[in-house]
Structure formats: C-alpha cells, structure tokens
Design brief:
With about 400 residues, this protein is α+β, with helices and mostly antiparallel strands. The chain has 11 helices and 18 strands. It folds into 3 domains: about 70 residues; about 240 residues, 4-Layer Sandwich (Penicillin V Acylase, Chain A); about 70 residues, no CATH class. The strands form 3 sheets. The protein has a 9-stranded mixed β-sheet. It is globular, with a radius of gyration of 20 Å. The protein starts with a strand and ends in a 14-residue tail after the last helix.
C-alpha cells in the first residue's frame, strides 16, 4: 500500500503576533515539543540564559520573543525553544543563487527535505514595524524572506552537524530581515551573531549587491564568491552524505549558470530541473518548493513544476495551496494531538521511517524496536533522543557522516 506525499502551504498575514500565530502554535507545538525533548533540549541553557543571550546579541527581538512566549502560555520550555539559543541539531538541504544584471535582482532557492518536516507557512508580518515576508521555520524564524527595504536572504545547511554556543539560524535570518536594509548591513550582523551550526547564507539587496557567507558553529563568517550555496563549506570537514545530497554536483551547476550569465529572471527555471530539483521526497530529500525573490519589487514567486504562486509585500493575499509529491510505502506513524500520542498511519512523524537507512546497523535494530513500541501506542521520546545521541557519538568517533532527524512541523 502507498500513501500520498503532500504539503499544505498557508499564506498568513498578521502584522503583530496575535490570534493567528497562537493558533499555529497550538497546532504545531506538540510535535515540536516532542522533538525538543527527544533531542535533549531540556538539558540546554535555562530560560534566564536564553533570554540574556537574545538581549545581548539581538535586542530588537526581545519584545517579540516576550510577546510570542506569552501567546504560547508563558512556560519555560516554550521560552527556551523560541529563543533558539543553543538548540538541538537540525539539518536540511538546499540550493541557492543570487544574481543581479541590468537593474534586475533575484535570489532563488530550492528547499529540499521531506514534506513531513516543513511548516508550509508563508508569513507576512511587521513585528518590529518593518514589513517582512518569508517561509517560516520554528514558528517565528525564517528559512528565506524579503523585507520592505529590498533586502532578501536564504539559508542552506553547511554539511556538518557539529554544534557550539549560538542561535538557531532561522532566528538569525528573522533578525536580519527585521533590522537590515542592505547586504552590507547584514554582513556586519553575521560577523557578530553566532550560529549554533554550520550554515551557508546568501544575501541580495535592491541595489544589486549580493554575497555568500559560510557561518561556522559558535561564530565566524567567511564571505566568498560567487553568491551561491549548497550543502558543504570550503576548507571544512567532508560534508555528510555528499553522494546522497549531490551537493558538489549542484554547486557546479550553479557555478555554470552564473558563468553563462543567466538572466536574473530566468534563474528559477533552472531550479525546477535536475540536478537542482530533487525528487527523493520519501527519503527526506525532495524539493518542496522553489522560492524566487525579487528584492526590487518586494515580491516572491513560490514555484513548482507547472504551478506558481505570486505574492508581494504590498499586495499580500492570504490563501492555501496543497502540493502533492507522489507516494511512498504506507507505514504506521505517530500522530500527536493535544500533547498526547496515539497510533496513526500519517502525521508529523511519519517521515521518521525514512531516516532508518542512514543509521548504522546497531542503531537500526534499536530504532526498529522503538518504532514497534511506538506503533503499539507507547512512544518513549527520551529513549529516541538517546538512540540518536549514541549514533551521533558513534559516527563522530568513526569520522563519518550519519543520519539526523529534523524537528517535526505542522505542514503535513
């Protein structure tokens, strides 16, 4: 038997955090909380340390964080989760390119992951007074976006799951879009605000200035040319699963596109074709959407083969699109409802089965045993976190790449 792979995309407009954001929180938090606790989030910095770090590095976001925490019920775990200070590791795959020519500017990205592991939320907000539009992650961070000053940004995983003291990258991107008007300003921020993992960030502004930045865990930013990114970094350790993610082939293709002087407006077409467009959705590495940002116009086109959804900061329209990506073998999963678990055949954690093939043999046996218990209605989330922590340690000791579970989200 098979089940459809699909993702519901919602376009939501809420200038200040309010009822719409709170509804999204209640919908998504049970799955995020399960991920956070399973991955050891409760052993991280306490609430006071998280709030102090936010105040020290991104003070403009402090009032927003307080408001969101209040809407989320005011609990310590919610406050720590939303701060994204020293969070558990999380991964993703992407291709990004920025190009300007003849007054036209584009920043284009493919978001590659499983449909089970993306929120599918396009959010327009003005939380600090500046209009911002982008694809949400962790309920208030952004994986990509544009603001009313004509500045756009997108991120890609850097290929190494090492962590250090720093913020989740999606919160850093939120901060860039709330406070920066130009690529130059954003570069200054990236040099001083530490990321907790290796990430690649591509920037573009309405003047046509673009940049690619490699962020190191715990701080450090390396600016390089051209303005492209995939899932590895220069001079760093070998990326994890390079053959599976095709990171080097994708980068070579992006370099060829820029050498050929592809017109900015034509970039998105190339992102809808191999090797940039990925189809392994059931294995957690399929292209969920192509985002084509026009910083000059403050516009975004969400693209799929045969379909495009246009949005503008000054003419944003709420709506919904359901995108289907094919099918996969039907396997039992865990559906989280109201913070309690029950057995189900679909839901936010259905994508867990896809990571099995990336685990070592001993971890697979433990994973299979955990799944059997979960299917019986008794998921032990701390045990799952311990399983992956042990696998990470084994992989690090062997000097190789391993599997990783992304946080479950509300999109599926």
């Amino acid at each position: 038997m098979t089940s459809d792979l699909s993702l519901t995309f919602d376009a939501v407009d809420e200038a200040e955090p309010g009822a719409k954001w709170r509804a999204r929180w209640h919908r998504s938090w049970p799955a995020y909380e399960a991920w956070f606790t399973a991955r050891g989030g409760d052993g991280g910095p306490d609430r006071a340390a998280c709030e102090a770090a936010l105040a020290a590095h991104m003070p403009e976001l402090v009032p927003v964080h307080r408001r969101l925490t209040g809407l989320a019920g005011g609990g310590d775990r919610a406050a720590r989760f939303l701060s994204t200070w020293c969070p558990p590791a999380y991964l993703g795959g992407c291709s990004i390119a920025a190009r300007s020519a003849g007054g036209a500017v584009r920043l284009v990205r493919n978001y590659d992951l499983s449909p089970d592991l993306n929120e599918g939320l396009l959010l327009r907000s003005a939380w600090t007074g500046r209009p911002v539009m982008g694809m949400a992650e962790f309920l208030w961070g952004l994986s990509d976006g544009v603001n009313d000053r004509g500045f756009a940004v997108a991120l890609a995983y850097g290929g190494n799951s090492e962590t250090a003291s720093g913020f989740g990258i999606t919160t850093i991107l939120r901060y860039l879009l709330e406070t920066c008007a130009t690529t130059r300003e954003a570069l200054a921020v990236l040099r001083r605000v530490p990321s907790h993992m290796a990430y690649n960030v591509v920037l573009a502004d309405a003047s046509g200035r673009t940049a690619s930045v490699e962020l190191r865990p715990g701080g450090g930013a390396h600016v390089l040319e051209p303005s492209i990114a995939t899932n590895h970094q220069h001079g760093a350790a070998l990326p994890e699963r390079p053959a599976f993610t095709r990171t080097h082939a994708r980068r070579a293709h992006l370099e060829a596109l820029l050498r050929a002087r592809t017109a900015p407006a034509e970039l998105a077409r190339a992102f809808l074709r191999p090797p940039l467009f990925q189809t392994a959705h059931a294995a957690c590495f399929g292209t969920l959407f192509t985002a084509d940002y026009d910083p000059v116009e403050g516009a975004l086109a969400l693209c799929w083969p045969g379909a495009t959804w246009h949005q503008r900061l000054d003419e944003f329209r709420e709506g919904r699109r359901v995108v289907r990506y094919g099918s996969r073998p039907r396997k039992p999963g865990i559906v989280l409802e109201g913070g309690r678990s029950r057995v189900g055949r679909s839901g936010p954690l259905a994508g867990l089965a896809a990571v099995r093939e990336h685990l070592g043999l001993p971890a697979r046996h433990s994973f299979d045993a955990w799944m059997r218990e979960a299917e019986g209605g008794a998921p032990d989330w701390p045990a799952l976190g311990a399983l992956f922590a042990a696998e990470d340690a084994a992989v690090a000791g062997a000097g190789g790449g391993g599997g990783e579970v992304r946080p479950p989200s509300s999109g599926a």
